[in-house]
Amino acid sequence: MNRIAGKWVLVTGASAGIGEACAKRFASEGGHLILWARRLERLERLAAELEREHGVETRVAAIDVRDRERVRREAESLVENGVVPDVIVNNAGLAVGQEPFQDSRPEDWDTMIDTNVTGALNVTRPFLPHMIERDQGHVIMVGSTAGHLTYPGGHVYNATKFALRALTEAINLDLVGTSLRVSAVDPGWVDTEFAGVRFRGDMELADKTYEGYEPLHADDVADAIHYVANVPPHVNVLDLVMLPTDRRNAYVIGTAD
């Protein structure tokens, strides 16, 4: 059953990768889209494509989720114009660097914490009271297997994804007595621009991350996020963890013969 058609879906980090794939997946089901990212031109091209192909409505804005005041103003503008998201996909996130903690850069800590954790809070908080008032809404955090198992060089990135898991569970508890749901989708090893950011633009090093096995792809994760958003209202998928078949955790890789 299609429970997405006609609903408003907000996707952060929608200009590429998992965010772009989510926009396409929800539009294919008739969902109207609120697309936020820093690269406005890419958002505008994507929105025009999806409006043309699927006949959905779109709203786009150049948003850095770290900028709380900018997020608040845009949220208020949407609400004033009668647009409250039915689904929020907190997808904007990144990892920067993979040095041991003792060699890490404080500016990288700030970027990861402010984007991955504070950014999700900045986006969710202004809409939540309106969702509660309507007694309708679903917040989906795009986490990571890094929030389940630490690995060398992960330190602060691991911490941000563990934090998202905690927030998912805690906000769910705060919403007891409402029909609102909060879910996490935690993929591992997805072949997107993400690795390029982590390795500071060194694409040769980034590509080595996926050598010897087939990683997940952005469309795979978008399918999972759509599934979580589309389950019946009495179902809440608290945490969906997904891995490449060839990669069983951070340390175990093995392809089938």
Walk me through what this model shows:
By secondary structure, the protein is an alpha/beta fold. The chain has one domain (8-245): NAD(P)-binding Rossmann-like Domain (Rossmann fold, 3-Layer(aba) Sandwich). The protein is built from eight helices and nine strands. The protein has helices spanning 17-28, 40-54, 68-80, 106-134, 155-174, 194-198, 203-208, 218-230, and strands at 8-12, 32-37, 58-62, 87-90, 138-142, 181-187, 239-242, 247-249, 252-253. Strands 3-2-1-4-5-6-7 form a seven-stranded parallel sheet, with helices on both faces. Strands 8-9 form a two-stranded antiparallel sheet. Helix 1 runs parallel beside helix 2 and helix 4 runs parallel beside helix 5. The N and C termini lie far apart (38 Å). The model has no long low-confidence stretch (mean pLDDT 94).
Which features characterize this protein?
257 residues, alpha/beta, Rossmann fold, seven-stranded parallel beta sheet
